[in-house]
Write a structure and sequence with these properties.
297 residues; four-stranded antiparallel beta sheet; 1% helix
């Protein structure tokens, strides 16, 4: 049995929210269509403030705690790097030519994926983009990393498996109709989980063969995240809902909707499960961020 309690609702953005990322302790960052980055103090909402006013829509954020930097991925493919101590931009990277959907840390490199179909490797010591790998002729919405491998979800419906050491594509296979939007390594089973425009969740074995296809949502799935203890999985969708699944038995989810738990009223664009609090955080086109206490009883 899964217990879900809505803890807080953060309101401050003037348009849809596409990006959220944690800082430390009770602080998170968010950005979106209103071109603002807000730093939220979850324990004291009155201390929250607009940190940055961009000239472009913000699609992705990454906080690099070692140097207290925030990376901002925009609609034109630019990466703005902000020093949070000096409170100024210290670098502007033009690593991509279109929307940057996600960042992922790999050792001393920050990886970014974009609508231009490229995977970029940026050195976190020099703050220079050192390598760009062409992965797809269509957009890339998602990347996940396990060891020396990456999974990439592509707009041409494919899932790509990348050798991160040699920077080459190892495998490519069909994922979802119209577009594969998100793909993840399962945290403890030797399987992959993907979600797409077709609203299905798909489970793949170690040989990239389809094990199961589940009609999980009514519209496109945009986000898949596992809980810190790896026992639960959350999916967020354009259908306005969040669904919570038992990670070891992906069959019967519990839904978070506007009707049952005063959830989101528009597309759920981004989820992340906070490692310190264990709370699930969701961001939506309804201009709201919601914080959920979710427990497996």
């Amino acid at each position: 049995m899964i217990s879900i309690i809505k803890k807080k609702e953060l309101v401050g953005h003037k348009a849809g929210i596409y990006a959220i990322c944690p800082e430390t302790y009770s602080f998170i960052y968010s950005g979106g269509v209103d071109k603002h980055v807000i730093r939220w103090d979850i324990n004291n909402i009155e201390n929250s403030k607009i940190l940055i006013k961009s000239t472009e829509t913000i699609y992705s954020l990454y906080y690099y705690k070692d140097k207290n930097l925030i990376f901002i991925g925009t609609s034109s493919g630019k990466i703005h790097i902000i020093d949070l101590i000096e409170k100024k931009e210290i670098k502007l990277l033009k690593s991509h030519t279109d929307k940057i959907f996600e960042f992922k840390l790999l050792g001393s490199s920050l990886l970014s994926v974009s609508s231009d179909g490229n995977l970029a490797f940026t050195d976190l010591d020099t703050l220079k983009t050192e390598y760009i790998l062409k992965v797809s002729n269509q957009r890339i919405r998602s990347i996940d990393i396990k060891g020396d491998l990456a999974l990439i979800a592509c707009g041409d419906s494919s899932i790509k498996v990348i050798d991160l050491i040699n920077k080459k594509i190892l495998h490519s296979f069909f994922g979802h109709e119209k577009s594969t939007n998100v793909v993840k390594f399962h945290p403890f089973e030797n399987t992959l989980i993907s979600g797409g425009w077709d609203a299905h969740l798909k489970i793949w074995d170690a040989n990239y063969e389809l094990v199961k296809s589940i009609p999980a949502h009514n519209y496109a799935i945009y986000s898949i995240e596992f809980s810190p203890d790896k026992t639960m999985m959350a999916t967020g969708s354009r259908d306005k809902t969040i669904k919570i699944w038992d990670a070891s038995n992906i069959e019967f989810p519990k839904s978070i909707t506007y009707e049952n738990l005063n959830g989101h009223q528009f597309s759920v664009n981004r989820l992340f499960w906070d490692q310190s609090s264990g709370d699930l955080i969701s961001a939506s086109d309804d201009k709201k961020i919601m914080i959920w206490e979710i427990k497996k009883l």
